[in-house]
Structure formats: C-alpha cells, structure tokens
Design brief:
- By secondary structure, the protein is mainly alpha-helical.
- The chain folds into two domains: 159 residues, no CATH class; 85 residues.
- The chain contains twelve helices and two strands; from the N terminus they run αααααααββααααα.
- The chain starts with a helix and ends in a 7-residue tail after the last helix.
- The model has no long low-confidence stretch (mean pLDDT 76).
Length: 325
C-alpha cells in the first residue's frame, strides 16, 4: 500500500496533477494518472536518447554534455505534455497547434534517428563524395607541387643526358696520357758539346671530366630526393585533408547525404516514413488519450472547486463587507 501511494505521488509529481484530489478520487482517476505517467516516461526516454545523440555527435559536448542535452530535451517534452494533461477543456486551436508542433518534432526526431539508423549507408556515400572534395580542397597546392616536380623532371632529363654522355666519354678515355721528351747535353771545359741524350717520357692523369661526372651524380641524387619529398607531400596533404573532412561532421552535410540515401530506394523511404509515423504517434499519444478519455471525477472536482470559488467571488461582489478567509 505504501509503495502504491509513493508511486501515485510520483505520478502526480510528473504529470502535475494534485495528489490530495487524486487520492480522494475514484480508481479511474488513479488509473488515468498512471496512464499519463507511463506515456510521459516513454516519450521522455526516447527524447533523452535523441538529445544525447544530438549533443554528442553534432555539438561535440562529450558524454556529460550529452547527458545534459538529453535531460534538457526530456524537460522540454515534459512541460509540453504537461500543458495537455493539465488542460481541462482544449479548444480547436489548441488541438491544431499541438498537432503542428507534434509534426515538427516528429520530423526532427525522424531525421536524427534516421541518421543513426542509416549511419553505415551515409558513411559509404560520404566516402564516395570525399575523394572529389579532397581533390577540390588541395587543387591549388597540388598544381603548384606538380609544377615544381615538372621543373625537376626537366632538369633531371638534361642532367641524365649529360651524365650519359660523360659516362661514354670516360669509358673511352678514363685517363689522359701525355707523351713528352727530355734531353741533356754534355760539354767539355771549353764549352764544346761532347755528348747529348734524349729521353721520351709518358705522363698519365685522370680525365678532368670525371669531376664533372661526380658533380652531376650528386646533383641528380639531390634532385631525385627533392622530387620524392614533393611527391610525398602531395600524398601527405591528401591524407591530412581527407582526415579533416572525415572528422568535420556537419548536420547539413549529413542531412543532404541522408536525403540521397533515403531517396534512392523505396526501402529507405519506407523506413523514414515508419520513423516519422512512430514519432508523430508518440507526440500525439497523450493528446489522443486526453481527447478520448471521458470526464473523470477528478475533472469534476476541479470544475466544482472553480464553481465554488466563482460563487464565493460573486457573493463578495454582492456583499463588499464579507471577507474570504
């Protein structure tokens, strides 16, 4: 019995109904309070999940921020549904406004839920368009790098041609051979030539083209290294930009991709329509229950209190000296 009273107090706290009046009302009024509480808990739990997912994925608020976002969304839903529960007589305009609000919230809920339902399909479509976006993002940088690589290739072509020519020349003449003669004359004391000798000598030296050959080899090695670095920079730039675009998760981008995924097959349209119908039914759940329920004794008690209060105020106007305590 104590548990029932505690749960009834919780129901009244959540729905905004008066616990003293509910406690003194019939079992039907108690059931209505519990019924509204059950519906509220279902709606609040669903919107808590949506608020949590939205805050963590698109607002990058982390786990604690996601919990706060979920609680805030649940609180907003609670207040909106409370207005319906606590309304005694809802006019036609109120019904229309609540239906429009429910449709808007159902569209938002369906879009967010579909983004998680079609997450893998959206990622697949994103990878298909990511390459084009990366190429567009690095287009200018890549053109400049390609131009520098082209200049290096031209220089390498000239250097390799000259290197090949020097290599052939060095193969033919690896060394330079120089022939020269030296002579000596022997004279007597009077200065007359007595004897003369002539000697033929040969001098061998490295071909001076070898210095140029070694210089070209070093230059070609440096140019190839620079070319590799430039080519590698294009790859690194593409990988970096691709990672940035992957991490930059935008709501509008994913909505566009979601539209493409949903619109390309009737299955996607059916699933989206199913979620939309589910959320619309969920949003109008309490409103439909309120419209279909007959007037309970709790409502009659509220109406009776209003009538009694109005009668007391009328009597006060008739007899100004009377005071209400």
């Amino acid at each position: 019995m104590k548990v029932n009273h505690t749960y009834l107090k919780f129901c009244c706290l959540l729905t905004g109904l008066s616990y003293p009046l509910i406690r003194n009302s019939s079992e039907q009024s108690v059931k209505n309070a519990k019924k509204y509480t059950g519906a509220l808990l279902i709606i609040m739990l669903v919107w808590f999940f949506i608020g949590y997912c939205f805050a963590t994925r698109y607002l990058n608020m982390g786990e604690s921020g996601g919990i706060i976002g979920g609680l805030l969304m649940s609180f907003i839903i609670l207040q909106v549904e409370r207005i319906i529960i606590l309304s005694h007589h809802i006019k036609f305009g109120g019904y229309v406004f609540r239906i429009i609000l429910g449709l808007v919230m159902a569209l938002l809920g369906a879009m967010i839920m579909d983004q998680f339902t079609f997450k893998d399909d959206i990622e697949l479509r994103k990878s298909q368009v990511l390459s084009a976006r990366v190429e567009q993002a690095i287009k200018l940088s890549e053109i400049d790098i390609r131009h520098q690589v082209g200049e290096i290739d031209s220089t390498l072509a000239v250097a390799n041609k000259r290197l090949f020519s020097l290599s052939e020349e060095l193969q033919k003449r690896p060394v330079i051979v120089t022939n020269y003669t030296t002579g000596s004359v022997t004279r007597d004391s009077l200065g007359n030539q007595v004897n003369s000798t002539t000697q033929r000598n040969t001098a061998v030296a490295e071909n001076p083209l070898k210095i140029e050959f070694e210089f070209l080899q070093e230059q070609i090695a440096e140019l190839n290294k620079k070319k590799f670095e430039l080519t590698q920079s294009v790859t690194e730039l593409r990988a970096k930009k691709e990672q940035e675009l992957k991490e930059a998760t935008g709501l509008l981008d994913e909505l566009v991709l979601l539209k493409e995924v949903v619109a390309e097959s009737w299955v996607g349209m059916f699933v989206y329509g199913l979620f939309l119908f589910f959320f619309l039914s969920l949003e109008l759940f309490i409103l439909i229950m309120k419209m279909s329920d007959k007037e309970s004794d709790y409502d009659k008690l509220i109406a009776h209190q209003v009538d009694v209060r109005s009668e007391m105020l009328s009597q006060l106007k008739i007899n100004p000296e009377q005071r209400i305590y």
